């Protein structure tokens, strides 16, 4: 494991053996690696787990419900590589069908263990997210900065897909969507029309817009931002999550910026604007909204208690809001899943007023 600052760590392989390069980031969750590894927001990144023991409960079955994998957040592993301290070769779980190492080999993703992940994380905490590469033997490769590329175009679907058969038609702009967002909408009587990131959905028949999570720099998604701006005039309800928060902010006229090392954990505290209510949330992002650039008719919705960065925005009069964290969790706490209810209530109210 080689960082762009020259730091080198030597570990042992338990995954697929090929040299890879990407942005090295850490996450502090104790559980949920099947969900994290299949989260499209990690596209282009080498993931470092701060929790020392990984792999002890194996990998779950690939059963499907509503044509979605029940226990994964997409149809494949999206991380570029995995770095852990202690890999458990033995696993035990009622739903496990294979080991983490076997899964990595199947998906051609390298994994290293025996590395001091706390020391590695401290370097990232001080210097910020760094470029890095995993090299095997004499297979030398160059560093690669995924943030220079439109990762959303890689993570997004390339066709329109429909899930569920509910009463309310929701267009979901797929920037790298996690399956549990779709599940949460279906559970609330929605038909979910998933469209590509640059698809002009304004001619579709729909009752609300959902902007998904996804990887990379929101400034590279001009096509999505322009489509959001166009639909704002119709005042149909809009909700966004993670990258969706940043895209909604940019559509409103605000700016975004890259965080030093991002938020990737299950324990980020966020404060609801104007209250003393604090929620513990699951997060995975490297960019944030600059609240100082929000127009006068917008306001922050949540704020991160740790570093005061933005965790959501809302329009003061129209049914538009978004969160930087993941209310659908998967994995992580589900304390804020009620926000899906708020969105669907906005949809129901919009339909009632339209009549």
Tertiary shape: globular
Query: What's the main sheet like?
Result: 8 strands, mixed
Number of strands: 24
Strand portion, in percent? 25-35%
Rg from alpha-carbon coordinates: 20 Å
CATH homologous superfamily caption of the largest domain: Class I glutamine amidotransferase (GATase) domain
The structural class is alpha/beta
For the record, the CATH architecture of the largest domain stands as 3-Layer(aba) Sandwich
**Spatial arrangement of strands, main beta sheet:** 14-16-15-17-18-24-23-21
Q: Which runs of at least 5 residues are low in confidence (pLDDT < 50)?
A: none
CATH topology of the largest domain: Rossmann fold
The overall pLDDT, averaged over residues, is: 97
Task: Kindly report how far apart the N and C termini lie.
Answer: 60 Å
**CATH class type of the largest domain:** Alpha Beta
How many domain modules? Answer: 2
Indicate the percent of residues in helices. 10-25%
Tally the helices.
Answer: 8
């Amino acid at each position: 494991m080689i960082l762009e600052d020259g730091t080198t760590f030597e570990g042992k392989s338990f995954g697929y053996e090929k040299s890879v390069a990407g942005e090295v980031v850490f996450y502090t969750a104790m559980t949920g690696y099947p969900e994290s590894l299949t989260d499209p927001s990690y596209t282009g990144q080498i993931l470092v787990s701060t929790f020392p023991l990984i792999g002890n409960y194996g990998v779950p079955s690939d059963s499907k419900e509503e044509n979605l994998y029940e226990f994964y957040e997409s149809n494949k592993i999206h991380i570029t590589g995995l770095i852990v301290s202690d890999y458990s070769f033995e696993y035990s779980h009622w739903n496990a069908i294979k080991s983490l190492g076997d899964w990595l080999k199947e998906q051609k993703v390298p994994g290293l263990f025996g590395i001091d992940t706390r020391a590695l994380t401290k370097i990232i905490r001080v210097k910020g997210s760094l470029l890095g590469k995993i090299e095997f033997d004499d297979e030398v490769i160059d560093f690669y900065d995924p943030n220079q590329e439109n990762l959303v175009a890689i993570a997004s679907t390339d066709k329109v897909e429909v899930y569920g058969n509910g009463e309310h038609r929701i267009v979901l702009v797929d920037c790298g969507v996690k399956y549990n967002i779709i599940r949460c909408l279906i559970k609330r009587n929605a038909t979910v029309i998933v469209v590509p990131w640059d698809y002009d959905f304004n001619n579709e028949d729909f009752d609300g817009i959902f902007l998904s999570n996804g990887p990379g720099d929101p400034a590279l998604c001009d096509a999505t931002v322009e489509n959001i701006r166009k639909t704002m005039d119709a005042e149909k309800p809009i909700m966004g999550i993670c990258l969706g928060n940043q895209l909604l902010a940019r559509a409103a006229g605000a700016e975004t910026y890259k965080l030093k090392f991002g938020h990737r954990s299950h324990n980020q505290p966020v404060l609801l604007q104007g209250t003393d209510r604090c929620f513990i949330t699951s997060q995975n992002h490297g960019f944030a909204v600059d609240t100082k650039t929000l127009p006068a008719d917008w306001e922050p919705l949540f704020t991160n208690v740790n570093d005061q960065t933005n965790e959501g925005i809302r329009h003061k009069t129209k049914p538009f809001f978004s969160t930087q964290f993941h209310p659908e969790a998967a994995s992580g706490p589900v304390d804020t899943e009620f926000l899906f209810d708020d969105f669907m209530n906005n949809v129901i109210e919009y339909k009632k007023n339209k009549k």
